[in-house]
Design a protein that fits this description.
It is built from 22 helices and eleven strands. By secondary structure, the protein is of the alpha/beta class. β2, α14 (232-249) and β3 (250-260) form a beta-alpha-beta unit. It comes from Candidatus Jorgensenbacteria bacterium RIFCSPLOWO2_01_FULL_45_25b.
Length: 471
């Protein structure tokens, strides 16, 4: 049945009348198609008495799992302990996982001591979502010694989400820090500062939880003259050390956005093959292990004409196994520093004026496929497009936040930050790129004012002095 017609015929007033009249509701449901029944079940709202109990029980024989699930969900609203055996029956034997999960949830929603043994039994279920619903129901009784003991043992459960819930709710583990600085503030000596020096040495002097957002593209493995490593493992170990420090200096619940892509090391002769390294996929488990939470994967797509042609040989012979697509994409991986607080908490750390000024304008990206042309520079061979920086900064920070790039290159992120009323902190060891940044930032001094302060170029020695002055 067409939903528009259905909405006109079965309105909220009619549903309110039906749900308080057992006979009328039963008769109505027996003469409707599945679409109408689902619609009514979704709109029943609060059930203050048992008038709807018998009609809902009659629907549990339906072959439609959505109808059975919604019936259980609505029965739970009644709060009738006599329904416990019904919930247990469907939780144990229904062929639908959704019905089973909703049934265990219904047992918990009874909030009755008689449900405790049942919920404890479901802690051993093979479905982690069923176990999670059982935990949720038992948390109400977590002050009871026998319940607390059972829940504490769940820290050894193989499912990572269950471990996190038990760590927070039972063992009292939280991911917050003791940093007393306000969430929307940062050390002033980092404001619009560019440090020429080794990134690890520099980060040693950056206080915990100083940075609101990091967006960077690390040097690719042995692809440039400024990024030579003895082995791929050495390269990954270097990145791990840097990303661990970034985790330390990032504020609770804030974001780390990483741009990488697989890299090809050319073959040394025709007798050997080239080697392709899957950098984003090797880095991901390292980040998760150190305490970053994966949020999103965004694919940056460049015009095919702008990338190296790998099709030439295949174009001629068209033989299977020799196919090589042109690599037009790079990965923009979005991570959040793990916390037991929701995003709303982070937003709530700002006053309404800052939140309003930071709101994202229309025509924002609605998918995770971003079509952006590459940028070219006479000095740096791999620069961020300003459009890419603008999007990341806009979507993952507030005005006046501190934006960090540990591998700053030509400093595009810094320019984008100032343009968007943010502040930047950059590190770069190559003097030719520092000089390139000076050109751009001096040329763009009109971007800075008395409030923002001028860009501050320092070497590592002077940077250390700055950190001591603030102590």
């Amino acid at each position: 049945m067409n939903r528009v017609i259905l909405d006109q015929r079965v309105n909220a007033e009619m549903i309110d009348g039906l749900k308080n009249n057992t006979r009328a509701l039963l008769s109505f449901l027996q003469n409707q198609n599945e679409g109408t029944i689902v619609y009514v079940l979704e709109k029943l709202g609060r059930l203050k008495n048992g008038s709807s109990k018998e009609p809902l029980l009659s629907l549990l024989n339906s072959q439609n799992e959505n109808i059975r699930t919604l019936s259980i969900k609505n029965l739970a609203k009644i709060g009738d302990i006599s329904l416990l055996p019904i919930f247990v029956k469907y939780a144990r034997s229904d062929e639908s996982t959704e019905v089973r999960r909703e049934s265990v949830s219904a047992v918990g929603r009874l909030r009755n001591e008689k449900a405790i043994p049942v919920l404890i039994g479901f802690l051993k279920d093979n479905d982690p979502k069923v176990v999670m619903q059982a935990i949720r129901g038992l948390l109400i009784f977590s002050q009871r010694e026998e319940v607390e003991e059972k829940l504490k043992k769940m820290i050894n459960h193989p499912n990572e989400l269950i471990k996190e819930v038990i760590s927070k709710e039972i063992n009292g583990v939280n991911y917050g820090s003791n940093n007393k600085e306000k969430h929307d503030e940062f050390p002033t000596f980092l404001k619009n500062t560019i440090v020429q020096g080794d990134v690890m040495e520099t980060l040693n002097y950056v206080p915990d939880e100083s940075v609101h957002l990091t967006f960077t593209s690390p040097p690719y493995y042995n692809a440039r003259d400024y990024s030579i490593y003895q082995s791929y493992n050495e390269y990954l170990n270097f990145l791990e050390k840097v990303f661990k420090e970034i985790h330390r200096v990032t504020k609770e619940g804030r974001f780390f956005v990483l741009n990488t892509s697989p890299i090809i090391i050319p073959r040394i002769s025709r007798a050997h093959s080239s080697k392709r390294y899957p950098i984003p996929y090797d880095v991901h488990p390292i980040l998760i292990k150190m305490g970053w939470e994966f949020i999103d994967d965004i694919v940056w797509v460049k015009p095919e004409a702008s990338v190296k042609n790998r099709n030439a040989g295949f174009l001629q012979h068209r033989k299977p196994l020799g196919y090589k697509p042109n690599a037009v994409s790079e990965m923009i991986m979005v991570y959040r520093k793990k916390t037991d607080k929701l995003i709303d908490w982070n937003i709530g750390q700002y006053n309404w004026d800052k939140v309003k000024k930071s709101k994202v304008a229309d025509k924002y990206e609605t998918t995770n496929i971003w079509h952006i042309g590459p940028a070219f520079d006479r000095v740096h061979s791999a620069v961020f497009p300003i459009e890419l920086c603008n999007k990341v900064i806009t979507y993952y920070s507030f005005v006046e936040d501190l934006i960090f790039d540990p591998f700053a290159g030509s400093g595009t992120l810094g320019l984008a930050a100032v343009n968007l009323n943010r502040h930047f902190f950059l590190t770069e060891k190559e003097s030719k790129y520092i000089n390139r940044m000076k050109e751009d930032l001096i040329k763009g001094r009109r971007l800075f004012d008395s409030k923002n302060g001028q860009p501050n170029f320092v070497d590592i020695k002077n940077f250390i002095s700055l950190t001591k002055e603030t102590v």
